[in-house]
Amino acid sequence: MVSRRPATIAEMRRALEGFATEEGLRRGLALVAGPSDVFISPYAKCGTTWMQQIVHGLRTGGSMDFREITEAVPWLELAHDMGVDPAAPQRAHPRAFKSHLGWEEIPKGGRYIVVFRDPLDAMLSLHRFFEGWVFEAGAIPVAEFAAYFLERGSESWWHHARSWLRRRGRADTLLLTFEGMKADLPGTVDRVADFIGAPPDPALRALVTRQAGLDFMRRHGTQFDDHLLRAARDAACGLPPGGWSTKVARQDGQGRAALTPEIRAAFAARWRETIAAEFGIAAYGDLAGWLGETA
User: Fold this and answer.
1) Which architecture, in CATH terms, is 9-291?
2) d(CA 165, CA 146)
3) What pLDDT, in 10s, does the model give residues 19-32?
4) Mean pLDDT within 228-236
5) Cα atoms in the Cβ-side hemisphere of radius 13 Å centred on 103
6) How confident is the model at residue 255 (pLDDT cuts 50, 70, 90)?
7) 3-state secondary structure 228-285
8) Which segments constitute the Sulfotransferase domain (predicted)?
9) Could you say which of 115, 202, 258, 270 is the most buried, measured as most Cβ atoms within 10 Å of its Cβ?
10) Domain spans in the chain, listed from the N-terminal domain onward
11) Can you name the residues that pair with 115 across neighbouring β-strands?
12) Is the pLDDT of residue 244 over 80?
């Protein structure tokens, strides 16, 4: 019987081994994508839920008739493990899927929306998201978690980012930044609407913008908190029931006081070795301009 949550990185890694099954991943990757299908595939904690809400609102006229957003926009890699057939008909058109896959792994033939976020903020957000759910509150300091975040190899932020940055300029791929979404949410909604073929309806786009606002999503927090995922996968990970997490936290850089000079230096070095070396983008702050964002 499980008596506690993981208290070390090693214990957390072992718990996460049970998160997704090979069969579930196989079924997700076997999906036959159609040209109108929309795959929302940022790295973890980089705006996935936010973009799910925007896309689902645009395709349904702003419907909030779902228990939790992953029920309406299924997670491709986890759908089978949550009792959902990823190929099943969806309640609206176009079909939309959540994913965290890179370009190499994701089913081909659809349309792809990827949001990038400063990896330091993504790491802090993931630490906050896991704390009290995937590991005991207070058990794993930010510095240890940052080292784990840096060591993820082919599952790292940098590996994922490089795979999608190579898609810049492709008609089937929309690349955005989390910071750009914050700076100009109405403009983001317009870009997404045009990309997925939503009607040019100013009233609809205004409604979706309002429903994608932080205040609105926080007021409807249980529809964005992954409670269906936890109910389906906690036991497989050996996690006790009763954990809590939120997808709609503050977006103001909260927690950056925990970023020591050593953490910042390690992240900067990884950037230079990967993104700067391949694309010539000197630092994350230059990414929005490289992508053509004007906000």
Assistant:
1) 3-Layer(aba) Sandwich (3.40)
2) 23
3) 999 999 999 999 99
4) 86
5) 19
6) confident
7) HHHHHHCCCCCCCCCCCCCCCCCCCCCCHHHCCHHHHHHHHHHHHHHHHHHHCCCCHH
8) 35-220
9) 115
10) 9-291
11) 176
12) no
Token pair in block for residue 265: 């230096």
Residues 32 and 132: their CA atoms lie apart, in Å, by 37
HSE-up (13 A, CA, CB side) for residue 60: 20
Alpha-carbon separation of residue 115 from 67, 160, 258, 279, 282 (angstroms): 24, 11, 24, 17, 19
Cα distance between residue 26 and residue 34, in whole Å: 18
What are the distances in angstroms from CA 250 to CA 4, 24, 70?
A: 28, 32, 21
Using CA atoms, how far apart are residues 226 and 126, in angstroms rounded to an integer?
A: 14
Q: Where are the beta strands (DSSP E) in the chain?
A: 38-40, 96-98, 111-116, 173-177
Query: Which residues does residue 175 pair with via DSSP β-bridges, in sequence order?
Result: 114
Q: Is 110 helix (H, G, I), strand (E, B) or coil?
A: coil
Angstrom distance (rounded) from CA 132 to CA 225: 13
Locate tokens 């230059």: which residue? Answer: 286
